[in-house]
Write a structure and sequence with these properties.
By secondary structure, the protein is an alpha/beta fold. The chain is built from 13 helices and 19 strands. Helix 8 packs parallel to helix 9. The longest helix has 24 residues.
């Protein structure tokens, strides 16, 4: 066993790319390093340990990682005189020791199933100066037992499962995160209960497909039951992601409608509005089935903020296919949509499809789609005009320290002036009512009503 005391007093900096699961993994790594006596640094230049938590969903992530690692070569000497560079997350899981071919200054590589061993790997690297790689294929579940350094006191990421069984034809995630594995329900409920006692007000339940939670334990999906039990803990706000349309059951929609703590917001990735493309994507639903599901959700939760993911330029996508995506956006009236140009990932079935569509055509379609998304987002926010929304305060606006910024129950960004004579740092994590007099595409704004609570 390595001597972890070598880490005591070392400074560390973690840069995270990608999804919320990566953010949560980073918080676990940070908590582990804190428990070893390490100290957070404000930048790579001030850090003895620099960790990149990576995502490999899109090609740009690889390019960014290579650029950031290379830039570490020109940093001044670290406080201790020796700097260890580590790469974790999905790229590490996918490439393992192969990363060293392109990144000769990386000392430690750890996969998505190996984050519980980060301290050991770093200590070994400081002790012997060699490369240390650990990329296990099977998730031991140990990461959820690690210490936790949360980014904020009022919000927590709570993983309910890892892995994915869906194998969408464009997606690398099942290959780097493994098969679905659900955490025991009692363990999740106990964790949330403890978070409530610590003052956490908002949680996000995490999984690649939360709707199939529990299916790996030889019984029907139990996500609806989990929502109800988590709602009974006293937590004020519950969000969850990601939610696959093919597995969103009626009982889950009922739980969303009936549990007060479940916020009226649902991220339901559609990816394309063309049934032909959806079949090529292996999404297992049609355009009509998706729109029918949207209607069923809205019948139960009329004011829900529906958000989505959309890929433009999937191999073989025609103008007609794209137009069906645009019309679906207009029909579904998304509150927000995250739009991406298709990124080829080696090792996925879609990577083998030859596509002659010029990049300029795909970019033009992408730009057209964004305009429609901006319109539906603007239209949705108009529904909040002249209403009072409870804003969970996250801090002040980056543009103006005299303006509070936070989130509504619909996950909209909200701005309001800092109340006179109040130190804004004392308001972080509190809720204040805001009477909305301005509704733009990406935010709401207004004046606060009453005191923060």
């Amino acid at each position: 066993m390595p001597n972890l005391s070598i880490l005591s007093g070392k400074t560390y900096f973690i840069r995270t790319f990608g999804c919320q699961m990566n953010l949560h993994d980073s918080e676990r790594v940070s908590g582990l390093l804190d428990s070893c006596g390490c100290l957070v640094a404000s930048s790579p230049a001030d850090a003895d340990i620099v960790i990149f938590m990576t995502c490999c969903v899109r090609e740009a992530a690889d390019t960014r990682l290579y650029g950031q690692c290379s830039s570490c070569k020109s940093l001044p000497a670290s406080p201790s005189g020796k700097r260890v560079i580590a790469v974790g997350g999905c790229i590490a899981q996918r490439d393992g020791e192969g990363l060293l071919t392109n990144l000769d200054n990386v000392d430690v590589i750890f996969g998505t199933h190996s984050i519980a061993h980060v301290a050991d790997l770093l200590a070994d690297a400081f002790a012997d100066g060699d490369h240390h790689v650990r990329v296990e294929e099977i998730d031991t579940g140990a990461a959820t037992d690690m210490p936790w350094h949360r980014e904020t006191a009022y919000h927590a990421w709570v993983p309910i499962m890892t892995g994915c069984n869906n194998f969408c034809s464009y997606c690398i995630v099942p290959y780097v995160r493994g098969r679905e594995k659900s955490r025991p329900m009692d363990e999740i409920v106990d964790e949330v209960t403890g978070l409530v006692r610590q003052g956490v007000r908002s949680i996000t339940l995490l999984g690649q497909n939360v709707n199939s939670y529990g299916r790996d334990h030889d019984h029907d999906p139990r996500f609806a039951e989990l929502l109800r039990r988590v709602g009974d803990t006293g937590i004020e706000r519950i969000y969850f992601t990601s939610s696959h349309p093919k597995d969103l059951l009626p009982e889950t929609i009922d739980a969303m409608a009936e549990v007060p703590a479940v916020m009226p917001q649902l991220h339901l990735a559609v990816q394309s509005g063309s049934s032909r493309i959806l079949k090529l994507m292996n999404r297992k639903y049609t355009r009509e089935q998706y729109l029918d599901l949207v209607q069923r959700v809205r019948d139960r939760i009329p004011n829900i903020a529906l958000t989505t993911d959309i890929i433009v330029g999937f191999p073989g996508e025609t103008e007609e296919d794209f137009e069906q995506t645009v019309s679906l956006v207009d029909e579904a009236k998304f509150a927000q949509a995250f739009t991406f140009i298709y990124s080829k990932r080696e090792g996925t079935p879609a990577a083998k499809i030859v596509d002659p569509t010029p990049r300029s055509v795909i970019q033009e379609r992408f730009d057209r789609l964004v305009k429609h998304v901006e319109q539906t987002a603007f239209d949705f926010n108009q529904g909040s005009l002249d209403t009072t929304v409870p804003m969970l305060i996250e801090g002040t606006s980056k543009k103006d320290p005299n303006v509070l910024q936070g989130k509504s129950p619909w996950n909209q960004t909200v701005h309001c002036p800092v109340p006179a004579g109040v130190d804004p740092t004392t308001l972080i994590g509190k809720v204040i009512d805001v009477h909305v007099d301005t509704a733009r595409t990406w935010y709401l704004a207004g004046a606060s009503v009453g005191d923060a609570r």
